[in-house]
Amino acid sequence: MTQVMPDDLWRDFPKTATEFEARFATEADCRAYWIEARWGGEPACARCGSTRVWTIREGTTFECADCGHQTSLTSGTLLEKTRKPLKMWFRAIFEISTRRTGISGKDLQRIMGFGSYKTAWSWLHKLRAAMVRSDSEPLGPFVQLDEALVGGKGSPHKELVLVAAEANGRVRLAHVENNDEGTCKRFAEGQIAGDAHVVTDGHAGYNRDSLGERRHEAVVQTKAERRESDAVQSCHWTISLLKRWLVGTHAGAVRDKHLQAYLDEFAFRHNRRKTSGAVRIAARVIEQLVAHPPKTRRSIIDATRRCRWLGSNHAAPA
Ligand SMILES: [Zn+2]
Fold first, then answer.
1. CA distance to 135, 163, 182, 199, 296, per residue, from 150 (Å)
2. Measured between alpha carbons, how far is 33 from 104 in angstroms, rounded to an integer?
3. For residue 231, how many C-alpha atoms fall within 13 Å in the half-sphere facing its CB?
4. Among the four 36, 47, 163, 216, which has the fewest Cβ within 10 Å?
């Protein structure tokens, strides 16, 4: 797949709702942007790579002049097989990106006028899948590491989440089974730079084996000391924002098996809160939608991604 320079794309992205409406007024406008994001403006045959293609089926598909293969605009992307116009998807992307705290399935259903909540839900999950992995640079140089229990309102059990946070910077979150040494090690390896200085509390899982060569400061604090100067304050702030977001935007209605997807969305927004803003988020989401392989509703439902980063058959994100 052709890689385009996303910076030019997002710089050009509409900045207000009015600009957005004007820029993406028609299906053709949205397709042009999609083609720009996916192929750098020049669509190519998915089978042979030829750019000698013409549009068929009202512009939703290209047919190759060389091999006859038909390539749909959305095939091989997260939006594969969508029956809805791109214009609707762009609208949903704008909504999810411009609301600082995101959007719930119910909100999206109402805004888009979907007949069923299930449709809104699966749209949100696809968009959420596009909200990961666009920054893979490990955290550093000063990183705090902590864990928290997160659970839905009234939920009998809580889920464990590992949190790594740069001081006033980016965060990474992982839904994990436990915080033993091996788990902490996999998390640190994937998310924290090898030369980072890491601050933790006194938990035994944070040690030489799990953190390797990184400089490690284990700070054991009493409650009073913590009130004075919290050694892992960025983590604690992140956790409290996360909990508020889960309850506020999603009414605590997050199933355990989908928690990682919500954590990814939270981190994605959090990590872009200062520099990029809504516009950049929306452009990034589109860029990720074209780059990600398809996901069916079934596959979303079946994906019990309890430990997407840490489970036996999943590699940590690069
Ligand atoms: Zn071809």
1. 24, 11, 21, 21, 28
2. 26
3. 18
4. 47
| Cα 161 from chain centre | 16
Indicate whether 314 pLDDT > 90: no
Dist. CA 52 → ligand 1 center (Å) = 8
CB 316 within 8 A of CB 172: no
Residues 6+ apart with CB under 8 A from 70: 56, 61, 62, 63, 64
CA of 77 to the centre of ligand 1 (A): 18
> Which two structure tokens, joined as six digits, stand for 120?
């809104």
Cα-to-centroid distance, 72 and ligand 1 (Å): 12
Measured in degrees and rounded to the nearest 5, phi and psi for residue 314 equal -125, 130
How big is the CA angle at 271 (ends 161 and 127), to the nearest 5 degrees? Answer: 80
Ligand 1 center from residue 315 Cα (angstroms): 34
* Interval 228-280: pLDDT, tens: 889 999 999 999 999 988 888 877 777 777 888 889 889 988 887 765 566 77
Residues 82-126: tens digit of each pLDDT: 989 999 999 999 888 887 778 889 999 999 999 999 999 889 988
Phi, psi of 177 (to 5 degrees): -75, -40
| 130 CA from centroid of ligand 1 (Å) | 28
Q: Cα of 316 to ligand 1 centre, how many Å?
A: 35
Distance 274 CA to ligand 1 centre (A): 43
CA–centroid distance, residue 29 to ligand 1 (Å): 25
Predicted TM-score of the model (pTM): 0.77
Identity of the amino acid at 222: T
Q: Are 183 and 310 in contact (CB under 8 A)?
A: yes
